[in-house]
Amino acid sequence: MTATAAAPEETIGMMVKRWRERRRRSQLDLSLAAEMSTRHLSYIETGRSNPSPAMIERICDELDVPLRERNRFHLAAGFAPAYRERPLTDLGAAQDAVRAVLAGMEHHPAVAVNVHWDLLAANQAMEAFLRDLPGELRRPPVNMLRATLHPDGLAARIMNLGQWRSHVVRRVRRQLERTAADGLAALLAELEAYGPPSPTTGPAADGTTADDLVVPLRMATPYGDLALLYTATVFGSPRDVTLDEIAIETFFPADQATAQVLRSLADLRTAPRAETPT
Fold it and tell me: Which of 49, 141, 181, 228 has its Cα between 20 and 30 A from that of 220?
């Protein structure tokens, strides 16, 4: 079992207050939702009362606190961490589920990432997109956002880079606000430091069309221009820190031309190799 201890100067009361304010909840609102008195919650926040493990869980449930941070709550209150943290390879049926989803989406690029968008697993379709990245960006752990937006990465191929970069930066900000995960602020600053791309002109400068349902990722490839949309899949009711932070992101074709290219590439990967004459 692993967990990062809370900073020595931060008490359990300070943590409760910080997360309550992060979620923009009043003491009255939170106390009613967690079925406790406002006075008890006030005593917890000021250090006059120490919550039980069960009370910590009720408060964290109402504030949607991630499991990694919940372990810090328990440690700050003087209790053992409540949740284990195991590598993906030690997650049994959950690992099998991740592998099954990635394999089942083999016609579409798909990847499993953690809370920082570090690569945990990818299917062959996604590996084909990452194959030409420079060695520095392929050094483990591969960060999918860095690989996408770094000037030496896939950014040179993204046709609507300004639009996609803005979308990614907003998404990282939301992730940071929701999770307060260590390292996310540094990643956000790095992505912002890449700077906006050179301005483009013309009716399609932002990469959108009137028929777009979502913000597409538009990429130029040797096989033609691709328009991709993505979905994110997470596990319901996780009880492990690693599992709580895993998301499977799958890219689907946003138009028929892209669908045809992805099918053709999948057929090339699965076609039997011709035997070499001896």
Answer: 141
Which residue has 């993906």 as its token pair?
88
Domain 12-76 - what CATH class?
Answer: mainly alpha
Helices (H), ranges, 2-149? 12-22, 27-33, 38-46, 53-63, 67-76, 93-104, 124-130, 135-138, 144-149
Domain 88-270: give its CATH architecture.
2-Layer Sandwich (3.30)
What's the confidence (pLDDT) of residue 268? Answer: 75
Q: Tokens in use for 41?
A: 């919650």
CA 227 to chain centre: 21
Q: Which long-range contacts (CB under 8 A, 24 or more apart) does 81-84 make?
A: 81/1, 81/3, 82/53, 82/56, 82/57, 83/3, 83/239, 83/240, 83/241, 83/244, 84/1, 84/2, 84/239, 84/240, 84/241
3-state SS of 162-224 is HHHHHHHHHHHHHHHHHHCCCCHHHHHHHHHHCCCCCCCCCCCCCCCCCCCCCCCEEEEECCE
Find, among 151, 164, 159, the residue nearest to 200 by Cα.
Answer: 159
How many Å is the maximal CA-CA distance in the chain? 85
Residue 273: count other Cβ atoms within 10 Å of its Cβ. 5
For 121, half-sphere exposure in the C-beta direction (CA atoms, 13 angstrom radius) is 20
Low-confidence ranges of the chain (pLDDT < 70): 1-8, 196-212, 270-278
Give per-residue pLDDT as tens, 113-140: 999 999 999 999 999 989 989 999 999 9
Domain coordinates in residue numbering, the chain: 12-76, 88-270
pTM, 2 dp: 0.86
